[in-house]
Each structure stands twice: as C-alpha cells, then as structure tokens.
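Figure S7 source data.
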Amino acid sequence: MTSKLVDQLINDNLVPLKPYESARRLFSGGQDWLNANESPFANPYDIDSDNFNRYPSCQPDKVISGYAKYAEVNSSQLIVTRGADEGIELLIRTFCTPGEDNILICPPTYGMYAISAETCDVGIKRVPLNNDFSLDVDGICATDNVNLVFICAPNNPTGTQVSSADLTRVLEHFADSALVVVDEAYIEFDIDNTWATQLDAYPNLVILRTLSKAFALAGLRCGFTMANEDIIQALLKVIAPYPIPEPVAQIVEQALSQNNIERMRQQVAFLNEQRDALQQALAQRPGVELLGDVKANFILFRHKQSAQIMQYLVSQGMLIRDQSKQMNLQHCLRVTVGNAEQNQRLLSLLDTYFEQAGASS
Ligand SMILES: *Cc1c(COP(=O)(O)O)cnc(C)c1O
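Tokens for the predicted pyridoxal-5'-phosphate complex:
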C-alpha cells in the first residue's frame, strides 16, 4: 500500500516497477541454494578493526592494484564498485540522459541491465538472441540511438559464449556512437575468452567483473568495471564518496593474494568438473532438454513440467531458479552447480519426482 503523499511525489517512471525478485527475495527458507549462481565454498578471512573509526578510501589502493594485477590491466583502467550491479547502474547514470537515451540488451540475459535502466528512466531497446543464443549482430547494428550496448559473456542464463568475430563487429560498428559493455561475471569459468586484453584496441570497450561468483564472495558486494581511463574518470564523477566499506577492502585484498587466487582457480576447476558431470546426469533424466551451453557455473534446461518440478524441489528445500518468464525460455529452469552433495541431492530429488509423476517427455 502506498500513501497519498508517496503517490503524489514518486517519480512517474517508478510507478509501474516492482522490487527486483532476487533469488534471495523469492524464497526465505530452503537448505540447498542452487538458485543464485553463488559458489558453494565459504572461505575464511580476517578483519582488523583498528581503523573502523575512519572513512575508507573511495578506491582503496590495494584493491585496485591487486585486481589490476589479477586482470592484467592498468590501475587507471579500473574502478571498484559495490558489486558489478553498481557498475551497471553507474554506467547508465554516467552515460545516459534520463528520458532521452537508450541502452541495448539481448534477451534472454541478466535482468539488472533493464531494471537499472528503468529506475533511471532510460529507454531499453531489445534485440533478442538468435535461436542458438548467438548474437543477432545484424539486428544489433541496425539499432540506432543507443548509448550503451550490454553483452553478457558468458551469458546468464544461457551459459553461452559470444563469438569473438560477432563482438568485434559490434565494437567496430559502435566505435563512434556507443560503449559496448561486456559483462564477464562468469569469466573465470571460461578465462581464455576474456576481453580484458583488448582495452587498448577498443576505446569503446567496457568490461564488468565481480567477486560474487568464482571468487565465492557474493556476500561482500564487490565488483569491478574496466575500461580506458577517460571512461573510468567519468564514472568516478558519479560514484559515491565511500562505496567500499573498510572490512570489504580488507577481505578483497586477501582474496587477491596469490595463494587465494590459486585457491579460487582450484575451486573453479572442481566446479567445472562437477558441472560437466551434473550436465550429463541431467541429460539422462526423462524429458529433460539441455539448453544453451555450460561456460559458467550453471546449467539451463527445459522440461514440460518445469512448474511442478520447481514446486516439488522448493517443497524439499532445494532452490533452483525458474527462468520460464524470460524471452524464449518457456518451461526453463536454471540450476547453479553446487558442491558434490548438493548436486547429488538434486539428482536424487529429481528421480523421486519423476518416479512419482510417472513423467515422460
Ligand atoms: C551475478 C551477476 C552480476 C552481479 O554481480 P554482483 O557483483 O554480485 O553485483 C552481474 N552480471 C551477471 C551476468 C551476473 O550473473
């Protein structure tokens, strides 16, 4: 219920919006969380409270230098944000004029590009992915009046990579008219395909990164935007004065130590193995049609009884993500790769469901 005063004062563009249905908001209970593409690993860190009376640095040196070294970019090509989500919003607020400008997105894809644009009263042009989830490059290049082109690679929720030839065409087409934002939230699961090495070649390239997925630090809220220095300087005009809390900076510094980067790579290798095994096992279940690819830490599949499967799993405390409302993803579910126990439990629950339902394709 909104009060009369709220109705009277609220920005008109916010009236039709609803709060984002994050995996966390949708379900409060549950025991197995395979719905938000989080890591199953909870790694230990230390906190030193000596300076908690002081405001933190806006862009903590050790965070910036540590990530620049890890990502092999220059420190001037990097800004740290409260999650990659803040990077998305900063880009929109910095480079789009409300009520005038547009972003371009390629659904089905990550939801926050559209949500951030809507809350900022920025227009959204949609060029759906092709049937095989590749980019419709002709469609993208035929779209004018866009300031930001968001391309998620690997794409959430399809798990597909973007071909380098396609992305090159998009970057070149928009060289003088738009920034091309490549969201690499899952790049550690497909590290050979990063675009971070291409910043010098493309002045309009922007790359989003996060510590929420492979680095197993979703609770920290820490992400990075990488681009050439003039773009970073523009974002620094808009970012809050103290976006990164001191405890967060301390943990990030530890997470980016050589040992902990090595630990992250081992955990990624483990998850990639688990994912391939889970994918094979899912493919053998009755009526399951695998969709897209598995270049990240999740698997997308379609089943005629997706709604009932979802309901049954929720009733058993096993939470996965319903994607059926996304464009072209009717009856689709996305499951995050968990630890060995969780993946096994998911398969057992599915078997129980299929036995009870007497399901067939
Ligand atoms: C999870 C995710 C993000 C958000 O990352 P945060 O750093 O947790 O805000 C951004 N993009 C994609 C594609 C994601 O899946």
